[in-house]
Design goal:
alpha+beta, disordered N terminus, 4-stranded mixed beta sheet, 6-stranded antiparallel beta sheet, elongated
Length: 179
């Protein structure tokens, strides 16, 4: 009898958890059905790890179901919508891909930040001059207007590989904005 009550209690708990959404992903009520989507990014035929991937609608820049992710060591990105829900909505998307790296300055590596405010200002200035940020993928793939990568998400499993060409190292130079 005790075993029956324990099993019945476990079954009721499971039903309660299912009803509350605790055992599955509870999505926003207006979210379209998501389709399992994997995008593989290669660079010159080799896996491209740590690349940011975004699926954007070229004709609707206000589309709220942002989908994307970051590639793993094999170049694979399991797409998530809103950074949480596995999969992507059905539709036609432009694929935007970018990978940015920053070098660490010798000053930051070898000299601790001074506690004196005046010396700290100089240290910060020197670090900023030494550290550079670089795009590691052709910048044409970084913008929706110039990327020629597209994917059609359909019902069911979706997987597509994109090669972003040879490795590059293009310095991102800060731009001054005027008012």
């Amino acid at each position: 009898m005790t075993r029956f009550i324990a099993i019945k209690g476990a079954a009721l708990l499971t039903l309660a958890l299912l009803a509350s959404g605790c055992l599955g992903e509870k999505t926003p009520p207006d979210m379209p059905k998501l389709q399992p989507t994997t995008i593989i990014i290669t660079q010159d035929g080799a896996p491209c790890p740590d690349a940011n991937v975004q699926l954007l609608k070229k004709d609707d820049l206000t589309y709220k179901w942002f989908a994307g992710g970051v590639t793993d060591s094999t170049g694979k990105c399991v797409v998530k919508t809103l950074g949480t829900y596995t999969g992507a909505p059905e539709g036609e998307f432009t694929v935007v891909v970018y990978k940015t790296v920053r070098n660490e300055s010798e000053t930051r590596k070898n000299t601790p930040e001074p506690t004196d405010p005046a010396e700290a200002q100089e240290w910060i200035k020197k670090v900023a001059e030494e550290e550079k940020e670089f795009d590691m993928i052709d910048v044409k793939y970084k913008k929706i207007d110039t990327s020629d990568l597209t994917i059609s998400i359909v019902s069911g499993k979706n997987e597509q590989t994109f090669d972003v060409g040879p490795a590059v190292q293009i310095e991102n130079k800060p731009t001054l904005q005027t008012m």
